[in-house]
Amino acid sequence: MNYTYLLRCADGTLYCGWTNHLAARVAAHNAGKGAKYTKARRPVVLAYYEEYATRSEAMRREAAIKKLTKKEKEEMAALGRTELPVDDET
């Protein structure tokens, strides 16, 4: 499974990315080994995610989300899909 996700950074901003292992990626961001953007804005928490069957779908969705307005991204985050998927917790 592949995921497109939004993280809420400690400064209140949102970060969008994609991964094939959501729990490990969130942990990497919090360890300072994720994106340069989140490294200086830790800790981060998962604000929202979507599941995709392929890497290319997840990457396309990431690109589309990055084009959304801040308000639209905040609306997505407000949906509160934050519990890690069962298959991804290992």
UniProtKB/TrEMBL annotation:
<comment type="similarity">
    <text>Belongs to the UPF0213 family.</text>
</comment>
<dbReference type="InterPro" id="IPR000305">
    <property type="entry name" value="GIY-YIG_endonuc"/>
</dbReference>
<dbReference type="Pfam" id="PF01541">
    <property type="entry name" value="GIY-YIG"/>
</dbReference>
<dbReference type="InterPro" id="IPR035901">
    <property type="entry name" value="GIY-YIG_endonuc_sf"/>
</dbReference>
<dbReference type="InterPro" id="IPR050190">
    <property type="entry name" value="UPF0213_domain"/>
</dbReference>
<feature type="domain" description="GIY-YIG">
    <location>
        <begin position="1"/>
        <end position="75"/>
    </location>
</feature>
<protein>
    <recommendedName>
        <fullName>GIY-YIG domain-containing protein</fullName>
    </recommendedName>
</protein>
